[in-house]
Amino acid sequence: MTAILERRWTPEGALDLPALVRPLRRGPGDPAFQVDARGTWLAGNTAAGPGTLCLRVAAGEVLASAWGPGADVLLDGVPALLGARDDDAGFVAHHPIVAEVRRRRPGLRLGSTGRVWDVLLAAILEQKVTGTEAHRSWRHLARRHGVAAPGPVPDGMVVPPTPAAVLGIADWQWHKAGVDGGRRRAIIAAAQVAGRLERAAELGGAEGRLWLRKVPGIGVWTAAETAQRAWGDPDAVSIGDFHLPGIVGHALVDRRLDDAAMLEVLAPYAPQRHRAVCYITAAGLGKPRYGPRFSPRDYRAI
After folding, report:
1. Is the pTM of this model over 0.70?
2. Residue finishing a domain among 68, 87, 106
3. Sign (positive or negative) of CA dihedral 33, 37, 39, 45
4. Do 246 and 142 have their domain in common?
5. Where in the sequence is the domain holding 14, given as residue range(s)?
6. pLDDT digits (tens, 9 = 90+) for 196-231
7. Are 105 and 9 in the same domain?
8. Cis peptide bond prior to 18, omega within 30° of 0
9. Which DSSP string corresponds to 101-152?
10. CATH number, domain at 277?
């Protein structure tokens, strides 16, 4: 069995572990993210190789265990993953709902993996499709083209495909995974320069997002979704999201908004607009439905 490495870390202030790691879960049955009685399990790629991380909290202390070539990297990243580098200085709640959630959820921070590839791959898969479609493709690609997660992991847990593995996927295999041509081309383009894209996490902020957008097929939405997870970008608003303008609009001004109007309403929160959005979505208010739900497509049948 792969050797285990362990560390303990005591956070300053409140810690909401489920909320911090939830953005890394890609739908039900995500084979790279599992939770069982032993803790929360995350599998990922690092510069040192694949690794598995298990997190659990006891008496206010985080107990972290890791396995695989990437174990040290994953353990080194635990504080940042759990919001230790998140700086909310200067944030002011301009709306009652934001102020209320911030008061009730002091442990709601912005975590960062410090690694781009895994979250970018998942974000590209989520472009312009329903969550059901994207998560189905993610599960298929991870199970067929990833590797078994090291350590005593929950059954079926795997590390997502590396850039090299992605470049080896044949056209018919992409089709079987339900990935259309546009997303396929964007993923391949990103895989070809994956090493350079990791610099985006070092640059951070708007500069890091612009670095990602140099890749054909990576737009504002995909860059923001990646930035939120890879470096905990507090201002990366997911412009172009199907649901977000409605959620923000009904929470803050009680009406539907488009992207431009949403940005206008969120303007007072700059440069921490994404943080405000996190408080809004944590309120769980949702938005009224005005028509039938968008039906998922299955590109495997096309």
Report:
1. yes
2. 87
3. negative
4. yes
5. 4-87
6. 999 999 999 999 999 999 999 999 999 999 999 999
7. no
8. no
9. HHHH-TT------S--HHHHHHHHHTTTS-HHHHHHHHHHHHHHHSEEPSSS
10. 1.10.340.30
